[in-house]
Every structure is written in C-alpha cells, then in structure tokens.
Design goal:
Layout: H1 3-14, E1 29-30, E2 36-37, H2 45-53, H3 59-93, H4 98-103, H5 109-117, E3 133-134, H6 138-144, E4 152-159, E5 165-168, E6 186-189, H7 191-201, H8 203-207, E7 211-222, E8 228-231, E9 237-240, E10 242-246, E11 249-251, H9 255-274, H10 278-281, E12 284-286, E13 288-293, E14 301-305, E15 315-318, H11 319-322, H12 333-341, H13 344-364, E16 367-368, E17 376-381, E18 384-391, E19 397-398, H14 420-447, H15 451-465, H16 468-474, E20 478-482, H17 484-489, E21 496-500, H18 514-522, E22 528-532, H19 534-547, E23 552-556, H20 563-572, E24 575-578, H21 581-590, E25 595-597, H22 604-612, E26 617-621, H23 624-633, E27 638-644, E28 653-654, E29 664-665, H24 669-678, E30 682-687, E31 691-692, H25 697-715, E32 723-725, H26 741-748, E33 757-760, H27 764-767, E34 771-783, E35 786-791, H28 800-804, E36 811-813, E37 822-830, E38 839-849, E39 854-857, E40 879-882
Parallel strand pairs: 12-18, 22-40, 23-24, 23-33, 24-25, 25-26, 26-27, 27-29, 27-30, 30-32, 32-33, 35-37
Antiparallel strand pairs: 1-2, 3-10, 4-6, 4-7, 5-13, 7-8, 8-9, 9-14, 10-11, 13-14, 15-17, 16-19, 17-18, 20-21, 22-34, 28-31, 34-35, 34-39, 36-39, 37-38
Helix pairs in contact: 1-2, 12-13, 12-14, 13-14, 13-15, 19-20, 19-26, 22-23, 25-26
Pathway: Siderophore biosynthesis
Family: Belongs to the IucA/IucC family.
Organism: Glycomyces rhizosphaerae
C-alpha cells in the first residue's frame, strides 16, 4: 500500500472521525482485527488525512507524513536496485523462488539474515509514518537507512574516566569488537548520533578528556529497527541511541533499558533452562549481553546483543521479510515458503504454534514479550520453520507479582506492568494483531488461504495452551489495539481503540458443521459424494410439527429416499407418502407406521400391492380407472380422491389450477364419488396437493383454509369427511430460503377442520437441509475469458440445477492446493459429462480456488441423487455417506 492507503487503513481501524461509519474505500479488503488492505492512488497524505478529519492536519503530523512519503519513495528506488540484485542471484543459482535461494545460503546464515532485513522496505505495516525519518536529510537516508549500500562505521567512545555505568558484560568482549585493542571500556555509538547529538551536546566531556572518540570503527548494517545494527566482519548486534524521529518517537535509549536488557536476558535464559515445556524450550532468545549509559542521558546509551543462534542447515529469516514481496516471484516470501511446503494451511499453523507456545507460556509467568514482526525471526530449514527467535526486550511488559523469581525494576520503568492484563495486552497486540495477522493477510492474498479457518484453529490452540483467565482475555470478542494515527494527532498520549477479534468468532469448521467438515476431509480423492445428516432432518421435522400444531405429517419420500433419512422419517413422522411400488416396499422395510400411496399412473401390480399391505394405508386415487383398479384388486382401505382444483399457488411446480396430469377435474368430483361408492370403496376425503416449493406462508395458509372449506362442501351429504390432505409444497429453496414457519403457524392459528384429519406431506422442506453434494475440483482453466472449475461428478449425480436452470451455491473446502490458486474470480462449475448442460453453477465469485479443493453444495438433500441420471457415460457413482 502507498502512504495515502495506509492512512485510510489506520483511520478505518481506529474509526478516526467516524471513518468506519462511512462507505469502505474503493477496492478495500477487510481482514482480521479490522485491518484494511486499501488499493488506492498515491495521493498527498496530508490532504488524504484532512479529508478524513474534515479539518487541518496539525503541523507536526504534516511534517511527519511528508517525511514518511519522501522516505518511502527514496527507499523504493533503492530497493528496486536491491531487488534486481536478488533476482540475478536467484537466476544464477537456478532458484525459482527467493525461499529456495535462501535455503542455499545456510553456509553464511548471518549474511543471509542481514540481507533479508532489507526487504522490509514498507516498514511497520500498521503505521502510516513507518518511513518517517525526521532529522535526516536525503543523504543521511542513503547512508544510514535500511537500504544502505555500504556498511555503517559504528564509532567507539572510550570511557577514560569511568563515568559511564554498565550492565552485563564489557562491550570490549562483544563479538563485533573482536580483534580490537581497546585499553579503556568503550561505548559504541552511531556515527550520525556522534556528529549531531553527542559531540555538540557533551563537548565538555571530550574537551576534559573524560571521554575520547577512538579511531577504531566497527562496520555494521542497519536492520529493520534502523538503530539496531548487524555486524559486518563479525556476527552480533548493537542497539544504539539515534536521536531522530522514526515512526512515532525519537529513538534514543533510556538508561533503564540499557540496565534491564542483560538482566531480562538472564532471567529468560534461566526460565528456558529450567522449563519443562518442550515446545517452549525450543524458543531462542537473542540475549542482550552488555549495556552502558551516561547517567541521566538517553543519548549516550547502547546495548550489545549476541549473534543469531547457529544451527546446521538453517537460515534465520526476519519475520518482516516474510510479509515482504519476493523480487523473484512477486509473491510474499511467506507464500513462497508455504507453497514450497506443499500444504500452506499446515505451514502457517506450524509457524504460528512455534511462536504462540513460548510467548503464551512466558506471558502466563508474567513476561509479555513484544513479539511483533520486527522483533521476531524464524529458523528455516528448507521450507520448514524449525524454531522461533525473539530479540529486543525494550518494549516488553513484566508483571512482578506473577514472576516466579525476583527481579528489580527501576522506578517508573515502562516495562513494569501494573496488572497482568498489560502483559496479556502486549502479547495480544504484538503477536496476534501485528505478527500473525500480517502473515495471514499475505497468504490470503497470494495463496487463497482460508483466514477464518486459521483463526478458528489458532483459537482452539490458544484455549488449550492457556488458563481460563488468559483464555477469556485472548479470546474476547474485542481487543484493544494501539490507535497509532490518533496518537500522532495527540503526541505523548497512549490511546487505544477496540477492534473485532477473529479469535473470538465461533470456532466452527469451514462448513459450519463439525461432522460434515470431517466427512468431507475423509473422502477419497478425487471425490464425489452425497452426505446426509438424519439429525438435521429430525430437527427440521420437530420445528415443522410445532408450527403445524399437532396436525398429521407424512414424509414424502420422493424428495430423498436415503435409507438413513427414511429411517428417521419412519421413526419421527406420522407416516410416509409413497409414489411407487418400490417406495411402498422401502417405506415398509424402514418401519413406517402408516402409508399413503400417490402417483398418476398406477398399474395393476400397484393396486394388488395396495390391497395386500398390512399397514394403515390411504390410496390417493387420480382417476376413474384407478378407482376401478382398486375395486378389482379387492382393496378395502380408505381412498382419497386427488383433485385438480382452485387457483395456482406461488412456487416452482404448479400441480393444480393449471392443466396437469395430476388428479381429476373439479367438475368430475361428484361422478367420481358416486363411482367409488358403487364399487364399494371407502371414500374418506380428498388429496389436494397444489404446488411444489411455495415460499409464501400467507398464500400457503390460505390454500389450507380454502382446501378444508372446499372439501366439506364437496363431501356434504355424500360421505363423512374424515381426511383432508393438502399435500406438500412447503418451500425450501436450494439457495437457502425456506417458508416462514412462524408466519405459517400464525396463518393456521385457530383453523377448524370440522372433525376431519388435516394431513401435510412435506418432502423438500424436511430433506433439503439434511443433504450435501460434494464434488472435487479436478481442473481449473479459462476458456474465452470464463474461468471454469471442472469437477469429479456433475449433473448425473446432482441433476436439480440443470433441471431447474439455476446456479446452486457452494462453499469451497480447501484441499492441499499444490497447483495454482485462482484468487478472487467468478467461476462456472461444470461436471465430467460430454454436454455443455452439465452445469452446477453458472457463475459464483470465490476468494480462492485450486485443483483439489472440494465444492460443497448445501441444501441439496431434496430431489438430488433421487432424480439424477448416473448411467450416462458410465462414470462411477458418488459415495453415499451418513453423518450425525
């Protein structure tokens, strides 16, 4: 992002001037912790902020923003030269990615790490003033900033009179000063600091001979922290006071920090030696070994830090480099590593746990590390993160009452946490919001990582790693975050704002159903499957029963005849409605207590089967021929006449109120009743199924009331009306809508059936949410500008979308994604058949898609497998899986 975009992102996160209440900036993508990725023009940053505030920007902040804008522009120019160098090195080494090039540099890991530091061109990803360098001119930036092309010559000041105080080791023993003949204790200082702050401000100490500038220098390179420099000739680090304004403050070093650095390092080292937690003990600390300062001064202060830990075959990668763009591939370095690993989801989980375990472990002991990107490194062996590394304790928070051992802190030290929540806040902000959120954001962008799944998984681990009190804090719905831009408007104030915490979201699997999620993952590849959940069917039935106030419910098994679903219907519904001899046989075998028999073209065999049924059975007769057939077969049970009557209802398939092959005409009812009675059949009522998939509750309730009234009129003086079956038709749209049961119940409130049994025959409404179709992506390609996802399976397994001419929505369940990830595209989903009509979805926007992903079509349990045509081309059928 450019600086104007960073300002918009910060204003959004902090809701500066009510910015979050306005429309989101064009092209912006919101991530975890209300962090915004804005892809906008490189505008004047001050004017951008003025438009947000509706007022002038304070002079001090305008200067900082202009400095940041100029500094970033210069840095990018220098970084472009560096990027060309990296790309050339990769080409000569035959490395296809920067990650592969790094892996080949383990013989000189210190240099590799130092060079990787320079990738952090953008600086602090959450701070609009990340490249502010007030106090430096362009020449200074070229000479001393991160992208410097030659080493900085660190100066040494000899303490000839012993006026400096010290903590830890003597600087003369530091590795970076190896080989220098130094008779007096020394203080390393930054050359710019020496020229502009120390010599002008402390001239009398030098004129008196108490301090002396040595001729010897130490070559070193700036890290992402700028004032921390890495050795050139010898490994190690020096943190030096630097009296310029970087990001939000002047970067001197307090004497308290110089005092505490070695002490905290010693404490942490001791904790690691005695710690029994194997994962935590893998954590490496870059210890501060030496500190020196002039009492009362923040300008004559320094810390010495040990070299990076050495491990055969590994390279220590700064976390700031992981989020930077690789000059070899154009992806983030993190994405290169994750893709190289073969399983990006597993890679980021492993990385996160490497850091989360020790950081949370130490926080529970009262030590809150500042575990943001700039203070963190990770040892990589090939694509694998091996162990985490932490450096710099100046921003840590220590809660003394919680510490297991004694530690003295100087009075007023900012390290001293007044409560354990300050420790937790430090960890939550630096580790989760700054560190992990940045990595997840680039992996979402580059590889289509499912960020929500990552945070849900991490939340489960955090819950397992922490005490109830810690867990309540880290998983709270909202978390405090530094209002970095607001704080620049009010210098010197510590201001926080609350942001949404992705760790607090319901920790649900990607498919919002734990058993379904596991079932999809367990399918053999390439997968095509129907998955059914009888518990979902039963729950839906229970809700419908409540809305229908005790009236009879027969399940229309034509919607879904899966044996598990049918068994649930036989157990929990009043009976099962069948439309063929095969369905009658299956319903009886499932244990149905009662049956109804429908269908417009019953045969002699059907009549004979009905006559032989030993269960309560009502036959829905559709014509005079069927009445004669039933009589000839000796059927003695109740008969209901199916009638095509009334007006058409809203829905997808009209059964009555229009010419259809179902039932008899309304004006033929009386002759049909007379015929049935002459044949000796027992006419008990009517079957008045009118429509399929009605979503209008008021219209459906009116249909029920009209049907009862009509049935009483039609039966008057002819037979005793005991049965009014209003059919099914309760809507459950494949896109997820369903008829409003509350509105339906209200529409039926107080209904008077006149003593007749009121019967409903739902099928789709009960079965739709209890079934999912799963199809694995076997190819993704573009043809004439359209992105196609070709799946194992298709309309021969799931015919409804093609039959109805609609696009069935799906959810992407990510697979291993070893091939190209297609990000933020409209995709058409087609099957494996040799016909252009094998389309499950004509166009749906997806955040990410790749071969191996599984598309899960929800609300598909009704009229799915039952109406499909699996014989075409002879492809293998789908798996049949039952969960719940």
């Amino acid at each position: 992002m450019n600086l104007a975009s960073q300002i918009k992102a910060a204003a959004w996160r902090e809701n500066l001037g009510g910015y979050r209440d306005r429309p989101k900036p064009d092209g912006a993508r919101e991530g975890a912790f209300d962090q915004l990725d804005v892809d906008g023009p490189d505008e004047d940053p001050v004017k951008t902020l003025e438009e947000i505030l509706g007022s002038a920007v304070p002079e001090h902040l305008a200067a900082e923003l202009h400095a940041a804008h100029d500094g970033l522009a210069d840095a990018r120019t220098r970084a472009a030269r560096r990027n060309r160098h990296f790309a050339a090195l990769a080409a000569r080494a035959g490395a296809g990615t920067l990650a592969e090039l790094i892996a080949a540099c383990s013989h000189d890991a210190h240099t590799a790490t130092r060079l990787l530091e320079t990738l952090a061109t953008e600086g602090h990803q959450l701070h609009p003033c990340a490249r502010t360098r007030l106090g430096w001119d362009r020449h200074d930036r070229e000479r001393y900033d991160l992208e410097a092309t030659r080493p900085v010559r660190v100066r040494l000041i000899a303490d000839r009179a012993g006026i400096l105080e010290r903590s830890g080791d003597d600087f003369r023993d530091h590795p970076m000063l190896h080989g220098l003949d130094l008779p007096d204790p020394v203080l390393p200082v930054h050359p710019w600091q020496l020229e502009h702050r120390i010599l002008p401000g402390y001239r009398e100490l030098f004129d008196s001979g108490k301090l002396r500038v040595m001729d010897e220098t130490v070559p070193a390179w700036p890290t992402a922290a700028i004032r921390t420099l890495a050795g050139h000739d010898h490994p190690g680090f020096l943190k030096l006071a630097l009296g310029i304004h970087i990001t939000s403050t002047r970067r001197d070093i307090s004497p308290a920090t110089a005092l505490l650095g070695p002490r905290l390092s010693g404490l942490l080292g001791f904790l690691h030696r005695v710690d029994e937690d194997e994962q935590a003990s893998r954590h490496r600390i870059i210890h501060d070994t030496a500190g020196a300062w002039l009492p009362g001064s923040r300008e004559l202060t320094a810390l010495g830090r040990m070299p990076l830990p050495a491990s055969t075959g590994t390279v220590c990668v700064p976390a700031t480099a992981l989020t930077a763009t690789s000059p070899v591939t154009g992806m983030s370095l993190a994405a290169e590593y994750a893709q190289w690993s073969g399983d990006p989801e597993a890679w980021i989980r492993r990385y996160a746990l490497l850091f989360a375990r020790p950081v949370l472990h130490l926080a529970a002991k009262g030590i809150g590390l500042e575990a943001h990107l700039q203070n963190s490194l990770v040892a990589m062996r090939g694509p694998d993160p091996v162990y985490p590394i932490t450096r710099d304790f100046g921003g840590a928070r220590i809660h003394l009452p919680t510490l297991p051992w004694r530690l003295e802190l100087p009075e007023g030290s900012p390290v001293n946490a007044h409560g354990i929540d300050q420790v937790r806040s430090k960890v939550a902000y630096t580790l989760f919001q700054n560190h992990f959120a940045a990595l997840v954001a680039v992996l979402e962008r580059d590889l289509g990582l499912d960020g929500a799944a990552f945070w849900a998984d991490l939340a489960d681990h955090v819950a397992a790693l922490t005490s109830p009190a810690d867990r309540d804090y880290y998983l709270a719905p909202r978390q405090p975050t530094k209002a970095l831009l607001t704080m620049r408007l009010h210098p010197g104030e510590e201001i926080e704002t609350l942001v949404d915490n992705p760790l607090a979201k319901p920790r649900k699997p990607i498919l919002d159903h734990p058993a379904l999620d596991e079932a999809v993952k367990a399918l053999p590849s390439p997968s095509s499957a129907w998955i059914y959940d009888p518990a979902a069917f039963t729950a839906r039935l229970a809700g419908l029963r409540e809305a229908l106030a005790g009236h009879t419910v027969l399940y229309a098994m034509k919607a879904c005849a899966n044996p598990a679903i049918l068994a649930a219907a036989a157990q929990h519904a009043d009976g099962i409605e069948c439309a063929s001899l095969g369905e009658l046989t299956a319903a009886r075998a499932a244990g149905a207590a009662r049956l109804a028999f429908s269908g417009p073209a019953k045969s002699t065999a059907d009549f004979a089967a009905a006559a032989a049924i030993d269960l309560p059975l009502t036959v829905h007769a559709e014509s005079a021929r069927e009445l004669r057939g039933l009589a000839d077969a000796g059927y003695a049970g109740p008969v209901a006449l199916r009638v095509n009557r009334g007006r058409a209802l809203p829905g997808t398939h009209q059964m009555t109120g229009a010419p259809t092959p179902f039932g008899i005409d309304e004006d033929q009812v009386f002759p049909a009743v007379n015929l049935a009675q002459r044949l000796g059949l027992q006419v008990t009522g009517f079957h008045l199924h009118a429509v399929s998939n009605c979503l209008d509750a008021a219209a459906y309730a009116a249909h029920v009331r009209e049907s009862i009234a009509w049935a009483h009129t039609a039966a008057r003086s002819r037979f005793d009306l005991r049965y009014v079956n209003v059919g099914g038709g309760l809507g459950a749209d494949p896109r997820g809508d369903a008829i409003d049961l509350r509105a339906l119940a209200e529409g039926l409130r107080g209904i008077d059936t006149g003593g007749a049994e009121l019967v409903f025959e739902p099928g789709r409404y009960l079965a739709a949410p209890a079934g999912w179709y799963v199809a694995e992506v076997v190819d993704v390609k573009t043809v004439r500008g359209q992105v196609f996802a070709l799946v194992r399976g298709g309309t021969h397994h799931f015919r409804l979308p093609a039959a109805w001419g609609y696009s069935h929505p799906f959810t992407v369940a990510p697979g291993p994604r070893r091939e190209k990830v297609w990000a933020d595209v409209d995709v058409r989903v087609c099957g494996e058949l040799c016909t252009p009509r094998d389309v499950l979805n004509g166009g749906q926007r997806v955040a990410a898609l790749a071969v191996g992903d599984r598309l899960v079509f929800a609300n598909a349990g009704a009229y799915g497998w039952e109406i499909s045509h699996d014989r075409f081309l002879g492809h293998a059928g789908p798996e049949q899986v039952v969960i719940g």
